[in-house]
């Protein structure tokens, strides 16, 4: 049963210490607190008596070999029972005997293996930070390939106070979890800059900081005025004004002053002289992306402007006699043409190309290599050889050909490639930009007096909205914040957030989501969640987190990147020596040599071509760009993907396990039948049952109470909209007093009324209580169950007095989706706590199911049957805690298993599955146990999720094939392997052009995923629509 929005907690809460609250279960539903997590550790959840479990943060792991080393080191310690290492989480789980092993021994074992370790006081989970730490997001400029990423991550993880650091190449972002008492954000920025990269803070998890853009400051006096106001403002702890960007960063005490009163106070204090606007961190990120692309274009333009004359001097001018005669005019030791080329190329090499030398130097200083090393090496070889050739000619009179134009054109083409790559990478983050643009810039605040009466309205910045604010939303305007309607009614288009295409009616007390569009009438809403707590912010956060994560397939690219540049340098040296020695030995004719050239020059050009044509960037971008686009495409279709690892696992899914209630069914249970077997009035019977069930929060209990209330008061259930909130108030006047109430998970409820025991639940509850079920009642139950109803038995005292039938209709798309999954090669399973007859009746609704079923009366019956089409496997009579065991039973043979549940009562199974999909989450996108969050309550999104994953990894494989194939083919061509037989020779400048375009082509290949369209079920099922 889907919860209302006001019952949802949208912040990402710690799950390791989450408390599971078992409530009454008459069928297959157990109730768990909405955002509690289930930490699946297989045997780790079962700790033997006397054993102790700790979690250790492990720094320095970069690949699977590292995690295997740590795991082996831990298992070798005497007294360690079990050890498991998670590479992506940089964490180890260890179960040990405290009598033999101390925490310090575990830490020392990891450090002896060459890694850094820190014992965690308590397990950390997704979206949570240990007490006292902050999560900072930084932009990092200057990264070109996976080697740069590894270098920055290594530097950050070695800093004292930094607990975790993740860097993403595609977004040029780094997320750092750090202890502000040990290290500041400025020190983190300095560490990144000391390594030779550019860095700046985007945003922090600090809730007491605001960044304002200030217009109207024209002199030092204006700056002093602003600083004077801030210095005297009560609650302002610290501030910093940047004269270049005209931005002021203010740190304040939220208990003394809030952001809106701070902005209002500055505006009033300056008398309207300054115009203030709150800066969104995402807007600042976008501006940095634009600035980077503009800077790269400026460098390319400068290099092109200087390189064209060099090209003309070398290629065109020799065919123009008058111009050529001027170039041959000797000026000092060199000709005029040589002077011009030397000067122009020097500007390109050391002014425009300075960034390559800086980047190469920092890479080498950090003990790594990257593309910049190759570019700097290739261009320097060409440039300095040409300089030496000139000087040698001036000294000896023997003039060898120079290759200045090679250096200039190499740098020009590389810069062109980098500029195009910036543009393409910017397109990959369009999903986040579109999500950010959904939020309106301003909001209309209703100003009220102390009595709550509206006295006026004013326009404020949407980032200054506070919880509890009353806001006015005009027709056609965007809703500025999450909240509740307090006045008016209208239809709201939520498609851009939830993917639900049909506008939804919003009336008083209806929840609304920020960023959605009000279609018709005016609304007054009361803001409830703003800032990072808002639904839109959490969607952006999830998409960002997914884009920051690395898919396991990325390990391959990281490994190749670590050895790529040294391998290419060795190949270039072998090429140089091979051609030079072969020439010296007369293995090829002198006619192959350039005019006035020699064997060394001939060999050097091949060697330079090898250096500059090799491209590690394409490999490094193959996975992150595709994952980045896929997560954005998924968000646009209402499918939120929590990471690259989940995306990779989903494309291998072999089994999809569906929970029945609320997933395959509509989750709206209704009482269909009531049968009393004793001399008791039907109204009294329902009153008795409702009294027992009124204290339960279970969906079936709510359905029974609602049915009884309707029967007692003769009103329509739909007439009472807030039954869930005030049902106890509306019916408390006619219920019996209940004592000693208890909910029994998987069975029902037990209580006392008027001194007599009352039991409401399934067969197991009744039989375990020693109450006999007569043949008449059993036959009635069988009829109910074979018609897809759940039978609820009621006992009063020591006798069974009646039965209620409760039904939950199958979703209309369920059968088609199950058939579609079968067509995709995915086997489907239904798991339910209901008995076999009800499960069989539900399964019959999924098209073709076999005619023979297990004998439900047999004591030796099996809990599984297999069909040809539709639901291919059913597990019935599964207790709430047993769903995770069902998942594991399918994983025993190595199969990849997905679990689809509503995220409310399926957390253990969702966490146990290889891919957990929470369906129908709506605004509750922070379900911790799920890898995929499907925002709509539509099973078709399960197919969409798997299809996105498959298409993404098909694209990633294609990217890798191209990136590897490019290097495998291009390097031999550049080395001149085909020159003797085919006469193919690739000049260094052409090799540079190929290298520049290779990474661009990989990014553009990933961008093709933006054209993704959700699969049509008619296509999957091969149905022809007339």
TrEMBL record:
Assigned keywords, A-Z: ATP-binding, Copper, Ion transport, Membrane, Metal-binding, Nucleotide-binding, Repeat, Translocase, Transmembrane, Transmembrane helix, Transport
Protein name in UniProt: Copper-transporting ATPase RAN1
Source species, domain of life: Eukaryota
Domain HMA: 52-118, 134-200
PROSITE patterns, alphabetized: ATPASE_E1_E2 (PS00154), HMA_1 (PS01047), HMA_2 (PS50846)
Gene Ontology cellular-component annotations: membrane
Annotated organism of origin: Morella rubra
Signal peptide limits: none
């Amino acid at each position: 049963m889907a919860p209302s929005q006001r019952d949802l907690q949208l912040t990402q809460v710690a799950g390791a210490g989450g408390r599971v609250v078992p409530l009454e279960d008459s069928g297959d539903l157990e109730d768990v607190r909405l955002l509690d997590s289930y930490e699946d550790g297989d045997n780790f959840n079962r700790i033997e008596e006397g054993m102790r479990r700790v979690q250790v943060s492990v720094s320095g792991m970069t690949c699977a070999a590292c995690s295997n080393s740590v795991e082996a080191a831990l298992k070798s310690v005497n007294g360690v029972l079990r050890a498991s290492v998670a590479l992506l989480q940089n964490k180890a789980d260890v179960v040990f005997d405290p009598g033999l092993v101390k925490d310090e021994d575990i830490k020392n074992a990891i450090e002896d293996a060459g890694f850094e370790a820190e014992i965690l006081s308590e397990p950390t989970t997704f979206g949570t930070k240990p007490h006292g730490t902050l999560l900072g997001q930084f932009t990092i400029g200057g990264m070109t390939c996976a080697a740069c990423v590894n270098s920055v991550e290594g530097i950050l993880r070695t800093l004292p106070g930094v607990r975790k650091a993740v860097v993403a190449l595609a977004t040029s972002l780094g997320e750092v979890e750090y202890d502000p008492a040990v290290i500041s954000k400025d020190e983190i920025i300095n560490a990144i800059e000391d390594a030779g990269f550019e860095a700046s803070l985007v945003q922090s998890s600090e809730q007491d900081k605001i960044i304002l853009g200030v217009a109207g400051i024209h002199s030092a006096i204006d700056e002093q005025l602003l600083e004077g106001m801030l210095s005297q403002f009560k609650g302002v702890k610290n501030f910093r004004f940047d004269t270049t960007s005209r931005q002021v960063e203010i740190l304040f005490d939220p208990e003394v002053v809030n952001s809106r009163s701070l902005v209002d106070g500055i505006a009033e204090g300056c008398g309207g002289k300054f115009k203030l606007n709150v800066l969104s961190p995402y807007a600042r990120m976008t501006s940095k992306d634009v600035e980077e692309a503009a800077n790269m274009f400026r460098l390319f333009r400068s290099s092109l402007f200087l390189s064209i004359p060099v090209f003309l001097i070398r290629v065109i001018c020799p065919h123009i006699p008058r111009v050529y005669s001027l170039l041959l005019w000797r000026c000092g030791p060199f000709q005029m043409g040589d002077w011009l080329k030397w000067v122009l190329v020097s500007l390109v090499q050391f002014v425009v190309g300075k960034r390559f030398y800086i980047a190469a130097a920092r890479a080498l200083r950090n003990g790594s290599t990257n593309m910049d090393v190759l570019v700097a090496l290739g261009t320097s070889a060409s440039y300095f050889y040409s300089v030496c050739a000139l000087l040698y000619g001036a000294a000896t009179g023997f003039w060898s050909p120079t290759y200045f134009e090679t250096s200039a054109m190499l740098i020009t083409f590389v810069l062109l490639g980098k500029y195009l790559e910036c543009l393409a990478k910017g397109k990959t983050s369009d999903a986040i930009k579109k999500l950010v643009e959904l939020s309106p810039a301003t909001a209309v605040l209703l100003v009220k007096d102390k009595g709550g009466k509206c006295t006026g309205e004013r326009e404020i910045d949407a980032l200054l909205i506070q919880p509890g604010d009353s806001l006015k939303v005009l027709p056609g305007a965007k809703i500025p914040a999450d909240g509740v309607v307090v006045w008016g009614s209208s239809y709201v288009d939520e498609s851009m957030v939830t993917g639900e295409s049909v506008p939804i009616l919003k009336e008083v007390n209806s929840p609304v989501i920020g960023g959605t569009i009000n279609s018709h009438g005016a609304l007054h809403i009361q803001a409830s969640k703003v800032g990072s707590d808002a639904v839109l912010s959490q969607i952006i956060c999830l998409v960002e987190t997914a884009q920051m994560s690395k898919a396991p397939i990325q390990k391959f690219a990281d490994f190749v990147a670590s050895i790529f540049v040294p391998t290419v340098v060795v190949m270039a040296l072998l090429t140089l020596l091979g051609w030079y020695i072969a020439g010296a030995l007369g293995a090829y004719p002198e006619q192959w040599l350039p005019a006035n050239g020699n064997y060394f020059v001939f060999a050097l050009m091949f060697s330079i071509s090898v250096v500059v044509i090799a491209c590690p960037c394409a490999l490094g971008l193959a996975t992150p760009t595709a994952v980045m686009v896929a997560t954005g495409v998924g968000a646009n279709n209402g499918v939120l993907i929590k990471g690259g690892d989940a995306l990779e696992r989903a494309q291998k899914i072999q089994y999809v396990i569906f929970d029945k209630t609320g997933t395959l069914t509509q989750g709206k249970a209704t009482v269909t039948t009531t049968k009393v077997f004793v001399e008791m009035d039907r109204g009294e019977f329902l009153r008795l049952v409702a009294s027992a069930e009124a204290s339960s929060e279970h969906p079936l209990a709510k359905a029974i109470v609602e049915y009884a209330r309707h029967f007692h008061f003769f009103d329509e259930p739909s007439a009472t909209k807030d039954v869930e909130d005030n049902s106890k108030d509306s019916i408390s006047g006619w219920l019996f007093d209940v004592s000693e109430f208890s909910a029994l998970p998987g069975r029902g409820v037990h209580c006392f009324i008027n001194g007599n025991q009352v039991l409401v639940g399934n067969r197991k509850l009744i039989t375990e209580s020693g109450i006999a079920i007569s043949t008449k009642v059993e036959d009635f139950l069988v009829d109910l169950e074979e018609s897809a109803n759940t039978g609820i038995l009621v006992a009063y005292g020591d006798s069974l007095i009646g039965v209620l039938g409760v039904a939950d209709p199958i979703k209309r798309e369920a059968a088609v989706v199950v058939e579609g999954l079968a067509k995709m090669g995915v086997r489907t399973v239904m798991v339910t706590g209901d008995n076999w007859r009800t499960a069989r009746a539900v399964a019959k609704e999924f098209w073709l199911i076999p005619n023979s079923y297990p004998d439900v009366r047999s004591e030796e019956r099996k809990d599984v049957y297999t069909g040809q089409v539709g639901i291919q496997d059913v597990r019935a009579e599964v207790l709430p805690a047993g769903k995770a065991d069902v998942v594991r039973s399918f994983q025993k043979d190595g199969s990849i298993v997905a679990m689809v549940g509503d995220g409310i009562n399926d957390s253990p199974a969702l966490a146990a599955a290889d891919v957990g999909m929470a369906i129908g989450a709506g605004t509750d996108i922070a379900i911790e146990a799920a890898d995929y969050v499907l925002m709509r309550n539509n099973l078709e999104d399960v197919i969409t999720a798997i299809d996105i994953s498959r298409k993404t990894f098909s694209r990633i494989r294609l990217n890798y094939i191209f990136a590897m194939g490019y290097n495998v083919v291009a390097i031999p061509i550049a080395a001149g392997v085909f020159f003797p037989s085919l006469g193919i020779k690739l000049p260094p400048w052409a090799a540079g052009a190929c290298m520049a375009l290779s990474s661009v082509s990989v990014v553009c290949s990933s961008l093709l995923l933006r054209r993704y369209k959700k699969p049509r079920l008619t296509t999957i099922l091969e149905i022809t629509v007339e």
